[in-house]
Amino acid sequence: LTSPLGLEALPSQRFTKVKRSTFGLNLMVVGESGLGKTTFMNTLFNTDLREEILPRNPQTTQTVKVQPSYYELVEEGVVLNLCVVDTPGFGDELNREHNLTPIMEYIDKQYEEYMAAERHPGFRKAIPDTRIHAVLYFIAPTGHGLKELDAKALKTLSKKVNVIPIIAKADTMTVEEKQSFKSILLRDLEDHSIKTFPSSYAEDVDGAEELLQHIPFSVIGSDSFTLVGDKKVRCRTYRWGVVEVENAEHSDFVYLRELLMSTCLHDLVETTHNVHYHQHRGDALRLMGR
Ligand code: GDP
């Protein structure tokens, strides 16, 4: 990819579509605290982009722990309205009061609001879409199987939203360890019948085949830079060397970014609407007895 957002890599038809209207992507990050979620989001949406934090609703930021931040990313005239929902401390062993409930409530609330807007004739044409298009689920680089807590959370989440499991802090594992950990995780995800994006939705996703072989993506986040030739790159520096975030030999960061920002950008939004939202809406209507 030549640009941070990779929007130029979109097929031309889609590119025109994006250019004509502003595009929105709502991402949620879930995982134990300290796994590098915040650092990773800063890395993913490089600050080289023109970034603007929009005003938040003071009521929501005070009352819920699950917190959305809004950004406007602009690249070559293409505007991507990005919402990143941070979920502090999930699964923190020392702090069990943080659990999946507020996260699921947030997800459901966005579906409910969309449903309400859909039923209101005045709003039909431009419903603000706050629904979560993907949950990036951070898994600790333990090398062992999926923890019970993670398995449960992934299972619950994957019934409601697109879930992309991610191995955090890839720089703490060797290539062999990463490979073996990936096999273990893939087996565990299958054993628990956990649906993940894009693998479980492959028929709906064009051009993702190549990316599939890197799943689950291992990532590195960093706030530091180094010079490689005359290029400034994000990295983590150790006594024994430098690990570059965007080097495909060091982590799957570039593949994940390509999936989110380019190859599957539309598919994430469409799957959210066609699969998850429709499921939620159907369940809700059945409950209401219609
Ligand atoms: P969060 O609680 O999940 O949001 O984690 P933070 O982003 O606050 O990061 C927690 C700590 O992990 C910080 O000291 C980061 O510098 C460090 N960290 C973040 N990403 C990485 C990574 O990819 N590799 C390593 N080794 N450390 C990281």
Give a quick account of the main beta sheet: strands, pairing sense, barrel closure: 6 strands, mixed
Query: What is the topology, as strand order, of the major beta sheet?
Result: 2-3-1-4-5-6
Distance between the termini: 48 Å
Strand residue percentage? 15-25%
Shape: globular
Helix content: 25-40%
Helices and strands: which structural class? Answer: alpha/beta
- Strand and helix order: HEHHEEHEHEHHEEEEHH
* Average pLDDT rating: 80
- Counting DSSP H or I runs of 4 or more residues, the number of helices is 9
Oligomer: single chain
Bound molecules: guanosine-5'-diphosphate
Keywords: Cell cycle, Cell division, Coiled coil, GTP-binding, Nucleotide-binding
Organism: Mortierella polycephala
Family: Belongs to the TRAFAC class TrmE-Era-EngA-EngB-Septin-like GTPase superfamily. Septin GTPase family.
Domain Septin-type G: 21-287
How does the SSE layout of this entry go?
Layout: H1 12-20, E1 23-31, H2 37-44, H3 58-63, E2 67-75, E3 78-86, H4 101-119, E4 134-139, H5 148-158, E5 163-167, H6 175-191, H7 209-212, E6 217-218, E7 224-228, E8 231-238, E9 241-244, H8 253-263, H9 265-287
Parallel strand pairs: 1-3, 1-4, 4-5, 5-6
Antiparallel strand pairs: 2-3, 7-8, 8-9
Helix pairs in contact: 8-9
The chain binds guanosine-5'-diphosphate (GDP).
Residues 33-39, 169, 171-172, 220-221, 236 line the site of guanosine-5'-diphosphate (GDP).
